[in-house]
Design goal:
Number of strands: 18
Number of domains: 3
Strand content: 15-25%
Distance between the termini: 60 Å
Structural class: alpha+beta
Helix content: 25-40%
CATH topology of the largest domain: Chloramphenicol Acetyltransferase
Shape: extended
Length: 413
């Protein structure tokens, strides 16, 4: 029986996928549920499992765009699994005898070339006329070979010399042209659309990270031991600060749909992470109801799925606000691009010790710049600046504003 394997639908609104990589070859025997290909959609990279065991015949090439429901391969389910040669039988197989070469005919003697003339004081030395021309062309005599007597550089050599287009380094100057994956093309399309179709504006502030560091240093070991290896990172503090600020400034947690504004009474926070296939933005659902442990555990789960290429369309669908952390790569300051159709995105950056004024005194503190990019069509300056200030206030006073003055209870210790 010949089984036709068709492209399954990776999600609603996805009409085609791209064959990223075939994990098997044409004519291979595959087992049922064995991963046979990686396919890219405009939202994620997914593995395609074999629907039955048998000999596979590929019907699409790597890089082909294939419609959902189209046949990508055939599986002959009646084919027997090949046994293959064992190492013993292969070792016992006798190699075919190769015929002995016929006696070679004597080769005619080839006259040896005359030895190159020995270098003299004249080798590489330009004549006066040649030197003048080389100086005008800004060419060094050592860069050309002379054709005159004893290797002297003649006037004709200088006239015919071509200036170098650059300093030769001897390094590789190759290039490679590769097609962008469907996911990368979709990300590019969405980023360009966000710049062109929204009234994007960015506001900045800075956060003194000392209070958060004090809490983390005091409780992180106990937190990790209590919660099965889940660490107490910065993302839980930022997520909790964002959900608090979204409740205070709900316009930031809304979207435009034509002539209408859609507001949400929940906070689905998209977390931008870097995966092997590029930028992924999985969603932490109802983050406003999660504890510190819940946020950290969910972010860890989604980050592992992104790293292992197991992220699904459902993991990245939706989201009402996005947090991106360029600080992990060393970014000091940036203007993040809105993740449409959302209206706001918070950018975190690296933490640098800087002198600041505290109660009239100069002190050194770990500081982070934060940036809020927002769609000015729906969010005004009052809401955007107020939102970012609310995030700053919560991060600089986490015990009172995020932990209700009870860190051990908030951290479930």
């Amino acid at each position: 029986m010949i089984l036709e394997m068709k492209v399954p639908s990776p999600g609603e609104s996805i009409k085609e996928v791209e064959i990223a990589t075939w994990l098997v070859k044409d004519g291979d025997y595959v087992e049922k549920d064995q991963a046979i290909a990686e396919v890219d959609s405009d939202k994620a990279t997914l593995e395609l499992p074999a629907e039955a065991s048998g000999i596979i015949t590929l019907k699409a090439e790597e890089g082909d765009a294939v419609a959902v429901g189209a046949v990508v391969c055939l599986i002959d389910t009646d084919a027997a699994k090949p046994s293959g040669l064992t190492e013993t039988s292969a070792a016992e197989a006798k190699p075919a005898e190769t015929p002995k070469p016929a006696a070679e005919a004597p080769k005619p003697e080839v006259p040896k070339p005359d030895p190159a003339p020995a270098a003299t004081y004249a080798s590489g030395t330009p004549s006066p006329a040649a030197r003048k021309i080389l100086d005008e062309k800004n060419i060094q005599p050592s860069d050309i070979a002379g054709t005159g007597k004893d290797g002297r550089i003649t006037k004709d050599d200088a006239v015919n010399a071509v200036p170098s287009m650059g300093t030769p380094t001897g390094g590789s100057r190759g290039s490679e042209r590769t097609k962008l994956s469907m996911l990368r093309r979709k990300v590019a399309e969405r980023l360009v659309a966000a710049k062109n179709e929204t009234a994007m504006l960015t506001t900045f502030n800075e956060v003194n990270m000392t209070p958060i560091n004090l809490v983390r240093n005091q409780y992180k070991d106990e937190f990790k031991a209590k919660h099965g290896g889940v660490g107490l990172g910065y993302m839980s503090f930022f997520t909790k600060a964002v959900t608090r600020a979204l409740k205070l400034y709900p316009d930031v947690n809304s979207m435009i749909d034509g002539d209408y504004k859609i507001g949400y009474d929940f906070c689905d926070i998209s977390i931008a992470v870097s995966g092997p296939k590029g930028l992924m933005v999985p969603v932490v659902r109802n983050a406003e109801n999660l504890t510190f442990r819940g946020v950290e555990a969910e972010i860890k789960r989604l980050a592992i799925k992104s790293r292992d290429g197991q992220i699904t369309v459902d993991d990245m669908t939706g989201g009402t606000f996005t947090i991106t952390n360029g600080g992990v790569f060393g970014s000091m300051l940036s203007t993040p691009i809105i993740n449409p159709p959302q209206s706001g995105i918070l950018g975190m950056h690296n933490i640098i010790e800087r002198p600041i004024a505290v109660n009239g005194q100069v002190e050194i503190h770990p500081m982070m710049y934060v940036a809020l990019s927002y769609d000015h069509r729906i969010i005004d300056g009052r809401e955007s600046v107020g939102f970012l200030v609310a995030v700053k206030e919560a991060l600089e006073n986490p015990v009172e504003l995020l932990m209700d003055n009870n860190p051990k209870k908030a951290l479930e210790l």
